[in-house]
């Protein structure tokens, strides 16, 4: 549970970092656009999140939530990789739509999996551990990306974020069989 609970949060961690720190800088310095572009990107992101709320569980109905998180983390990694080279505003909007879908979808699948596998009497303590690790990861990435190198070379920022999501994919694939076989009553 510890491995899944944290690895499945990697997409959420990267999403918070890009929305708080990376995308405003990217829009201004790389797309050479104004706040309207950033605002429309947020609309695209929110639209993707709405689609995830409606469709993600239906789309992965016959698959495990672990596989769903692997797919969605892979989509996020791909979006960040495309942002390394693309300077198109329309591509930026499309990728925000996908990132919103991947972020919300992975959170839905993660929460569903945890509800199915962690007993109610320990879920609060487990979520506290996940939350603390989530905050520490966010702080580390925000600190790293506040260095002038990453502000001026945003492509490297996206490369790190893509690698972060690919690390989540690798971890979830490594533990895939154990996570899929895991039953809720085995955890205490």
What do these coordinates show?
By secondary structure, this protein is mainly α. It is built from 9 helices and no strands. The radius of gyration is 17 Å and the shape is globular. The mean pLDDT is 91.
Summarize the structure.
The protein has 188 residues and is an all-alpha fold. The chain has helices at residues 2-7, 10-29, 35-59, 65-85, 89-117, 120-145, 148-152, 154-174, 176-181.
List the helices and strands and how they pair.
Elements lengths: L1 H6 L2 H20 L5 H25 L5 H21 L3 H29 L2 H26 L2 H5 L1 H21 L1 H6 L7
Helix pairs in contact: 2-3, 2-6, 2-8, 3-5, 4-5, 4-8
Total beta strands: 0
Structural class, by secondary structure, is mainly alpha
Average predicted local confidence, pLDDT: 91
Distinct helical segment count: 9
Quaternary: single chain
Distance between the termini: 11 Å
| Helix and strand element order | HHHHHHHHH
The radius of gyration computed from the alpha-carbon positions, rounded to a whole number of angstroms, is 17 Å
Given the C-alpha coordinates, what overall shape results? globular
**Poorly predicted runs:** none
Percent of residues in helices: over 70%
Largest sheet: none
Proportion of beta-strand residues:
under 5%
């Amino acid at each position: 549970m510890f491995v899944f609970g944290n690895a499945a949060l990697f997409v959420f961690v990267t999403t918070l970092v890009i929305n708080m720190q990376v995308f405003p800088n990217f829009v201004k310095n790389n797309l050479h656009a104004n706040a309207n572009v950033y605002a429309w990107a947020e609309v695209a992101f929110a639209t993707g999140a709405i689609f995830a709320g409606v469709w993600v569980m239906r789309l992965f109905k016959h698959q495990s939530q672990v596989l769903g998180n692997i797919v969605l983390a892979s989509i996020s990694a791909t979006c960040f990789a495309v942002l390394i080279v693309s300077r198109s505003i329309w591509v930026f909007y499309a990728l925000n739509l996908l990132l919103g879908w991947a972020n919300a979808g992975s959170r839905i699948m993660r929460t569903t999996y945890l509800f199915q596998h962690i007993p109610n009497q320990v879920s609060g303590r487990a979520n506290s551990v996940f939350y603390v690790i989530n905050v520490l990861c966010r702080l580390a990435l925000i600190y790293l990306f506040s260095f002038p190198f990453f502000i001026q070379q945003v492509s490297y920022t996206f490369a790190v974020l893509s690698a972060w999501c690919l690390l989540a994919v690798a971890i979830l694939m490594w533990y895939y069989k154990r996570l899929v076989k895991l039953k809720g009553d085995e955890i205490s």
